[in-house]
Amino acid sequence: GVPGVGKEQALKLIGTLQGQNLLQRFEQWKEQFRYDNNPPLVVKRVIHCSECHHPGSYKDHEHSGCKFCESTRYCKPNDSKYCCPCEWHQLERVKQASAVEDNIRKKANSCEGFPFSEVIQEFLVNKNKLIKIKECQRPNLLSFQIFASEKMEWPKHYACKKLLTLLTHYDMIQRKSGYTDSKQLQAIRIVKTRVKNGIPCFEIEWQKPEHYVNAEDEPEELFVVTVEEESLFQAAYPDVVALYQMEKSEVLKKKQKNKKDRPKENKLPNVCDEVSDLLSQMNLKSRCGILPVQDSTSGIKTLPKGEIHQRSTESKGVVLAAASSLTAVQRPTSAAAPPQPALPYLLLQNTLPDSILPPQFTKNSGISSSSSVTAGLQLDNIDWEETFSASP
């Protein structure tokens, strides 16, 4: 109750007393208040030696010695942390140690009636009688609603929601200890597993207790839901936990059975077989009526322009059909692989008869003469890269 003395200064005062009773110290202050008006003791500081830190100068100690060092000439050197035993230094150390107490004592002296005996007696005498609780009783939901409404102005549905977890916990503790009662809440089922603050829990549906009130905006349900600790609930309601685990295992078995009953995916057919079937189904019509004309200069057999155009059109259709079929079959295995440059020529050799192809384009001819044959078949306008990369 002293003005200007707060918690920090009070704690510093307790630390300086080193276990001494603070109330006894206040009584000593009461006696010291009589002498506070007396002038304080003043001690003059004398010159100290820079070598031994004792009273006296260095020159005096060099010639006549030091009384504290007990020497006739010179003195013993000491470090800066050395405590001088002279009267002035002793008084300074006492002032520093009691600075906190002196400051508080001066403020307390200005308060009339300090120490306040009435305040001290109020804290020393305990007038409250502790009530020993023999046993815990089950909370009454209706009584708590009335009490919370009168004392804290809680709505009924809010009070019910707050007390519900206490009711379930009390009933689980009682059932775990072996006490069962008809008033205890009945667990309907476990909804699902939960984790609350790192602890495994169950989300439980309970039978709605008597006098339980829902909020106006909530639908009327025949059950209430809470989240309870898994180990405590299993000890209190082992049959409900066993039923939940059995249902969970049945669901898991059904899932495994459905996986086994699923038909296996058909394997992709052999790519070579598909290509062989497509090529065997091709039917090329040959024109026997028109004979090719051989060029005297180059030795290449040429056909009339109309026939060349007609046969090139047929050849183009055959090649495109084979290319699209091959792309569709090979795409699942290597969709990103670029087509080979010589693939169009190999397709022409395998699909067209040797009588139609010129000698430079037969199987025994070289690759260098393929450009002239390609020009003869009018295949310049075909985009081979787009043909073999595009999906059918």
Automatic annotation (TrEMBL):
<keyword id="KW-0540">Nuclease</keyword>
<feature type="domain" description="Flap endonuclease GEN chromatin organization modifier">
    <location>
        <begin position="186"/>
        <end position="245"/>
    </location>
</feature>
<protein>
    <submittedName>
        <fullName>Flap endonuclease GEN 1</fullName>
    </submittedName>
</protein>
<keyword id="KW-0255">Endonuclease</keyword>
<dbReference type="InterPro" id="IPR041012">
    <property type="entry name" value="GEN_chromo"/>
</dbReference>
<keyword id="KW-0378">Hydrolase</keyword>
<dbReference type="GO" id="GO:0004519">
    <property type="term" value="F:endonuclease activity"/>
</dbReference>
<dbReference type="InterPro" id="IPR036279">
    <property type="entry name" value="5-3_exonuclease_C_sf"/>
</dbReference>
<dbReference type="Pfam" id="PF18704">
    <property type="entry name" value="Chromo_2"/>
</dbReference>
